[in-house]
């Protein structure tokens, strides 16, 4: 599309100010993007508030029909959405197409779900029912790693149970979300879906806005804490899916050749820019060097480059700030005596390109282990005892995901159950499905998204207690 506009009350509108969106592969401006004002935020919240009663009063099946129309519109615009997604996020074009396809699949899966309803007590003259009711206006603040898919997570869950939404994408990747808004304009009643782009200050205004009943946010732990503080002013509901520093424990009974490939791509999916990617790899000392060798063999053949070029498997780090953080973590590890098995230096070309990097002989206390790198870097940590590995894996403020790799599934499940995280996988990692609840513990989040459990978090519980007798 030639021009990007905000969606407010069913109309595409301009903003007085704008900001540039940068292609991370070229460091050049892709497009100018509207920066919504505080007045426009008020207008969007007012529109969503006025649209709420009629949207709430539709049946769930009627609301699902609208979401299926949105799924069709996204599918019909697959190539244009994927091209813009690659330009603003950096991921390879095939991966961008996969994100568009995943967005469509997510909408169709949500449409098969129902809210729980329960008669919790019944007699000949009375009945007590437990219902789930929508909250009102939901503010959705979305990240830059999967800007289209994660926006749809929030939009679809909020809408299908009867809420209206105001969506704010990351200022790094606002364009595909604005395109989504232009599609929604012709599908939903005015005010049901509103899309505003802008800087971080706009998100802060959303979290404190008295007209917004719930904030759903995916992003960093520090920002999540600020949102909780801001939302407390009017007891706004929150669902916060925050950072992770996921540990994987590889037991000594595995064959390094068999597990190397799934472990590698669990760490480097989307160039490592996934909250639930594998970010700390604990390997038993008996197979440590063998697994390092297998991982290097895989990583050495991975092609990093501009996502529009044929054969490229991984794109750039999405923004300069993250690129500099990744570089600093590797530099600090090297200076502390770590063994750089592969990569370890920025690529000598325009763009925020950092190659696949494997770092051995590190441990807790090293920044590359203690902090979430959120990029194409994997620290590999040696251990000698499973109990020790579990203790070290759990010794963190993070608690999003974790995994155990073993040739014996029962052993894997037993160890996985001891990990302090929202999702524990066995012989896999970063497998996230719409039908399964997803969220973190500790500082990795509050609440869950996806599945009927996630839908319920976009509602409030109401008990209807009825009797024929006047009491």
Mean pLDDT: 97
Tell me the number of helical segments per DSSP (H or I, 4 or more residues long).
15
CATH homologous group name of the largest domain: Aldehyde Dehydrogenase, Chain A, domain 1
CATH class identity of the largest domain: Alpha Beta
How many whole angstroms does the radius of gyration measure? 23 Å
Biggest beta-sheet profile: 7 strands, mixed
How many structural domains? Answer: 2
Strand content: 15-25%
- Count all strands and give the number: 20
SS-derived structural category: alpha/beta
CATH architecture of the largest domain: 3-Layer(aba) Sandwich
CATH topology (level 3) name of the largest domain: Aldehyde Dehydrogenase, Chain A, domain 1
Q: List low-confidence stretches.
A: none
Spatial shape:
globular
Give an overview of the whole structure:
By secondary structure, the protein is of the alpha/beta class. It folds into two domains: 6-242 and 440-464, Aldehyde Dehydrogenase, Chain A, domain 1 (3-Layer(aba) Sandwich), CATH 3.40.605; 246-426, Aldehyde Dehydrogenase, Chain A, domain 2 (3-Layer(aba) Sandwich), CATH 3.40.309.10. It is 38% helix and 22% strand. It has helices spanning 38-57, 60-76, 78-89, 93-110, 147-160, 175-185, 200-208, 221-231, 256-268, 288-299, 320-335, 367-370, 386-394, 409-416, 451-456; strands at residues 6-8, 11-13, 17-23, 28-35, 118-122, 126-134, 137-141, 164-168, 193-195, 214-218, 237-241, 246-250, 278-284, 339-342, 357-360, 377-383, 401-405, 423-426, 445-446, 459-467. The strands form five sheets. The chain has a seven-stranded mixed beta sheet, sandwiched between helices. Strands 9-8-7-10-11-19 form a six-stranded mixed beta sheet, with helices on both faces. A three-stranded antiparallel beta sheet has the order 5-6-20, with no helix packed on it. Strand 3 (17-23) and strand 4 (28-35) form a beta hairpin. Helix 3 packs across helix 4 (93-110), helix 4 packs parallel to helix 5 (147-160) and helix 9 packs across helix 10. The longest helix is centred in the N-terminal third of the chain and has 20 residues, at 38-57. It is globular, with a radius of gyration of 23 Å. The model has no long low-confidence stretch (mean pLDDT 97).
């Amino acid at each position: 599309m030639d021009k990007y506009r905000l969606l407010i009350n069913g109309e595409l509108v301009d903003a007085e100010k704008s900001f540039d969106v940068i292609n991370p592969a070229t460091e050049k401006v892709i497009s100018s993007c509207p920066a919504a004002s505080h007045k426009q935020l008020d207008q969007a919240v007012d529109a969503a508030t006025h649209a709420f009663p009629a949207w709430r009063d539709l049946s769930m099946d009627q609301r699902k029909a609208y979401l299926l129309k949105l799924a069709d519109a996204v599918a019909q615009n697959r190539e244009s959405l994927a091209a813009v997604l690659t330009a603003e996020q950096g991921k390879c074009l095939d991966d961008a197409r996969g994100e568009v396809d995943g967005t469509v699949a997510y909408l169709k899966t949500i449409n098969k779900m129902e809210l729980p309803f329960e008669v919790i007590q019944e007699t000949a003259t009375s009945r007590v029912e437990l219902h789930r009711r929508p909250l009102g206006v939901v503010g959705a603040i979305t990240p830059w790693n999967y800007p289209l898919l994660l926006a749809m997570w929030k939009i679809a869950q909020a809408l299908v149970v009867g809420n209206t939404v105001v969506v704010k994408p990351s200022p790094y990747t606002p364009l595909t979300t604005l395109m989504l808004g232009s599609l929604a304009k012709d599908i939903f009643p005015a005010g049901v879906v509103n899309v505003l782009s802008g800087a971080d200050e706009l998100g802060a205004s959303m979290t404190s806005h008295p007209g917004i009943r719930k904030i759903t946010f995916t992003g960093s732990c520090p920002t999540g804490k600020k949102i909780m503080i801001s939302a407390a002013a009017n007891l706004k509901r929150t669902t916060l899916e925050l950072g992770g520093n996921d540990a994987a424990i590889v037991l000594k009974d595995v064959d390094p050749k068999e597990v190397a490939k799934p472990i590698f791509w669990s760490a480097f999916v989307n160039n490592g820019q996934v909250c639930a990617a594998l970010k700390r790899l604990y390997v038993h000392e008996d197979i440590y060097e063998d697994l390092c060798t297998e991982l290097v063999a895989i990583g050495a053949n991975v092609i990093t480059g501009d996502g529009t070029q044929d054969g490229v498997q991984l794109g750039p780090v999405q923004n300069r700030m993250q690129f500099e953080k990744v570089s600093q973590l590797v530099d600090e590890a090297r200076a502390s005596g770590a063994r750089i098995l592969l990569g370890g230096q920025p690529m000598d070309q325009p763009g925020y390109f950092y190659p696949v990097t494997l770092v051995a002989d590190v441990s807790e206390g090293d920044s590359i282990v203690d902090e979430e790198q959120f990029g194409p870097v994997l620290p590999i940590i040696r251990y000698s005892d499973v109990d020790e590995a579990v203790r070290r894996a759990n010794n963190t403020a993070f608690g999003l995901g974790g995994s155990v790799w073993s040739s014996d599934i029962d052993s894997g499940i037993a160890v996985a159950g001891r990990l302090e995280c929202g999702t524990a996988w066995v012989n896999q990692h970063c497998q996230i499905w719409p039908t399964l609840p997803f969220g973190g513990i500790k500082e990795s989040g509050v609440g869950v998204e996806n599945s009927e459990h996630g839908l319920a978090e976009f509602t409030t519980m109401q008990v209807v207690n009825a009797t024929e007798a006047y009491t």
